[in-house]
């Protein structure tokens, strides 16, 4: 990480090593690894610059930020109507990543933060995403990522998870009953892009014993998710 940061301002190994506070041989080895993976590029004369993969990652990250800012009014409206903390997360491999968060009205803050990754099997956003997939696709993800227990309420059995997802498909929203974090419950729904493919999900979360009472919370969450999807071009 510190070599990458130094690479943003320096090109020669000696300067990169000085900025990173590392020996030149160590920096040289790290740079060679970065070159192999596309994160750096050498001009053959001892100078290094950021590689194409850095630009690709930066573009993907900026795209996420653009999406979050584009739909933030929808997230804020849901928060104001419910008092719950509202999250938007985008699918990233076998996990999802929070890209936006609007704190609830109660005087506490949930541990979630923008940039934090979340498991799919134990969160309302994650289960809403999984419910858009076939059972075979879900089983493939489970085989790769496993079903680690986050709390005593976490679903750790694949068959039980598939049964839960069948219910999510019917009601069009998912629930997290202290499955990811003790004392926190959430309701989530999937978000789609202009291609009709799932790209993430939206949720409203709160502490179990301090959650504002909202009788139509699932309907409000699903409506907000649909509004986000429409804003992204989904039909």
Automatic annotation (TrEMBL):
It holds the Pfam family IclR_C. Residues 1-52 form the HTH iclR-type domain. SUPFAM superfamilies: GAF domain-like, Winged helix' DNA-binding domain. One of its GO terms (biological process) is negative regulation of DNA-templated transcription. It comes from the Bacteria. Keywords: DNA-binding, Transcription, Transcription regulation. One of its GO terms (molecular function) is DNA binding. InterPro entries: GAF-like_dom_sf, HTH_MetabolicPath_Reg, Tscrpt_reg_IclR_C, Tscrpt_reg_IclR_N, WH-like_DNA-bd_sf, WH_DNA-bd_sf. Residues 53-234 form the IclR-ED domain. This is Transcriptional regulator, IclR family. It comes from Kibdelosporangium aridum.
């Amino acid at each position: 990480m510190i070599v990458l940061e130094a690479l943003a301002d320096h090109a020669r190994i000696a300067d990169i090593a000085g900025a990173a506070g590392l020996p030149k041989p160590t920096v040289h080895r790290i740079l060679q690894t970065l070159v192999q993976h596309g994160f750096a590029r050498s001009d053959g004369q001892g100078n290094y610059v950021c590689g194409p993969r850095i630009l690709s990652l930066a573009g993907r990250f900026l795209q996420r930020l653009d999406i979050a800012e584009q739909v933030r009014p929808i997230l804020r409206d849901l928060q104001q109507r419910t008092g719950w903390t509202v999250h938007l997360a985008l699918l990233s491999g076998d996990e999802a990543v929070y890209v936006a968060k609007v704190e609830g009205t109660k005087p506490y803050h949930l541990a979630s933060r923008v940039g934090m990754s979340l498991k799919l099997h134990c969160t309302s956003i994650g289960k809403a995403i999984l419910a858009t997939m076939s059972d075979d696709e879900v089983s493939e993800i489970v085989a790769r990522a496993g079903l680690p227990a986050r709390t005593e309420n976490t679903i750790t059995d694949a068959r039980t998870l598939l049964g839960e997802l069948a219910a999510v498909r019917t009601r069009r929203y998912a629930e997290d009953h202290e499955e990811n974090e003790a004392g926190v419950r959430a309701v989530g729904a999937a978000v789609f892009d202009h291609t009709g493919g799932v790209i993430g999900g939206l949720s409203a979360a709160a502490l179990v014993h301090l959650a504002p009472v909202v009788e139509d919370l699932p309907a409000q969450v699903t409506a907000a998710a649909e509004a986000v999807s429409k804003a992204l071009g989904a039909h």
